[in-house]
Write a structure and sequence with these properties.
The complex is a heterodimer of chains A (171) and B (492). Chain A is an alpha+beta fold and 171 residues long. Chain A has two domains: 62 residues; 104 residues, Cupredoxins -  blue copper proteins (Immunoglobulin-like), CATH 2.60.40. Chain A has three helices and nine strands. Chain A has a five-stranded mixed sheet with strand order 3-9-8-5-6, with no helix packed on it. Chain A has a four-stranded mixed sheet with strand order 2-1-4-7. In chain A, 29% of the residues are buried. Chain B contains 15 helices and no strands. Chain B has a single domain, classed as Cytochrome C Oxidase, Chain A (Up-down Bundle). In chain B, α11 packs antiparallel against α13 and α13 packs parallel to α15. The relative contact order of chain B is 0.11. Classes of the chains: A alpha+beta (171), B mainly alpha (492). The structure holds protoporphyrin IX containing FE and copper (II) ion. Protoporphyrin IX containing FE binds next to α1, α2 and α13 of chain B. Copper (II) ion (CU) binds next to loops of chain A.
Amino acid sequence: MVVFGVLAALGVIWTAVWVWVLGHSGGRAAYEELVPKVDVIRRRLFYLSAGSLTLLLLVSFYWLPYFPMRALTIGKPQLVVQVIASQWYWKLSTSEVPAKTPIEFVVTSKDVNHGLAVYSPDGKLLTQVQAMPGYTNHLIYAFERPGTYMIRCLEYCGMPHYVMVTPLTVK
Amino acid sequence: MTDIDPRGERAAALRRLALVYMTTALGLFLLMGLLGLLMRLDQAGLFVLPPLQFYQVMTLHGGGMIAMALLGAMGGLANALSMAISLSPRLLWAAYVVYLAGVALFVIGTLIGGFAAGWTMLPPLPFDPSHEWPLWAAVVSCIAYLLIGVGFLLFCLNVLYAARRAFGGLGGALGWPYLFSAGKNQASPPPPPMVLAATAVSIDGVLTVAAGALLLMAMLAQAAGLVGSLDALLAKNFMFFFGHMTANLTIYLAAGLVYATLPVYVGRAWKASWPVVLAFNVLVVGVILPYPHHLYQDFVQPLGMQIVGQVGSYAAGLPVILVTVTGGLTLIYRSGMRWSVPSILIAWGLWGWVFGGIGALLDSTIAVNQVMHNTLWVPAHFHTYYLLGAVAFVWAYFYHLTGELSGRHDRFASKIAAWMYGLGGLGFVLTLFLSGAAGVPRRYAEHLPEWQIFAKVGTPFVIALGLGIGWLAVEMFARLGIAWRNAAAHSA
Ligand code: HEM
Ligand SMILES: [Cu+2]
């Protein structure tokens, strides 16, 4: 929802500019005089967006979901859960894990591509990783609160894809 | 040069060709749009589409829409470009036939064969033995994509050939003499922006089709039992290179139509300035870089590729958006713009291109993608810059062209319809973005009760969009007869 907030905020700014320009489509200004002014605005916009994107790029690396980064930000895994996806169910080496403990999900697939996505008890998407045939992905995650979490498939894998769900209990 | 004479036979043939390409695209859009409405109604819980049918419809809608948008953009541009370069009507008719054969095969594969692997057909799903469709349906669908690819390839090759001839080489068509003299080389003014757009797109189009064809042949070879199963990661890289690039290139191709249309309504000339030339040159390389953002959740993908995906996504779209959108808005500002269906649709297109771009930029951030990947945020962003971007530009050009050729002008109701198209689209994509932010997965044939509210709110907007484009379509179709006749004689 933070992300939607950012989209909405930028969207409102952009829409305001758009409406303003459309509202000022009437009249006649000398185009040749406008062009150099817009060149300046465009250059500033370019530096502004290039600058903020570079900043966003660097800052965002902190949340990289890949193994070495999560081992730093969340902690070295204390427990391993083997996950095998197949059409159309999940096989977990355990269906119960402790809270507040970095857990390593070792994820693969027996047939087609699947996607392991963990949803919180109140339905928020918390983390995900792909389950791929012939490959093993390692995902670290620590659950904050006990409760019943849901693992849903997030990579389309055939007709029953949308019912490929299994609960995960966090104690 | 006589062969770019607008009164010539060749120009007349291209006008007719454009009418046929775009009429086909609009017809396909209306059909595929109905399928889209059915899916959204199903997700709202207002209509039950059994899952098997849902996924066939989803696959057809996805592939069909991508194909129709590309077809419309190619057709429009084939005519718009005839002012500057000389495409071959005969070759483009051949491309049309091949392309349509591909689309027809795809309809057969999905609706009759029951093929439902999604428009991305990610291996090994298409040939997986436990699925619901026969092998032939998957084979037919692969061949369908190949034919569509060949149609696009013919267009690209034709553009490259003609642009080289008209501008003394590809460098000329990309405005290099002007670019590298920092805009000071007055002796060689840059080509018109639509030539830049078409050339940049065509170079990458050739690469795209080559990658796609390689993958599709490998898939067919697997189906025939000639090779074992394809490597899942490699196949994914190829598929998204192909799929992402095709979708992306469509947008830039359609942007070429804005350069051709907007000047007419604002009464100002839109020349390529130095930043415009630079932006399209950057695009040639830039558009290749972002595709790895589809593989962020494939943790085994080399880290370097993931970073390139994020950097490339930030860098690729920015220059062209910046020059085209600021350029477009400047053109409109205090121009005394004629408010007409094409200018309204272009205004919406500019809005959606930027808004969809913001959604895309956010999602191409690896940290964000971690919780947005394969949620409805993804369809949200690409529906935004298709419906309210590329596709809006195509309809703008189609309306403009049929208006010019038939001498019929829009009425008050037409303008209302154009605004409805935009507002309906806006509401529809906002509900998709909201669903995505709430974690609702994409490609779910049935939505949990707590998710249905988004699709419920979205439905009236889809209907408004449908009524808007339906009205405009009736007007455009009604003009076709006269437009077709006048296309041969017209001299503008
Ligand atoms: C006319 C209005 C449209 C409506 C109501 C609509 C609706 C939908 C819906 C409900 C989905 C399924 C979303 C999901 O659960 O994953 C979808 C998917 C899709 N749509 Fe649309 N859509 C429309 C227009 C377009 C346009 C103009 C394009 C592109 C030119 C497009 C391309 C796609 C693609 C590529 C998919 C993904 C298919 C897949 O996942 O395999 N749609 N659309
Ligand atoms: Cu699945």
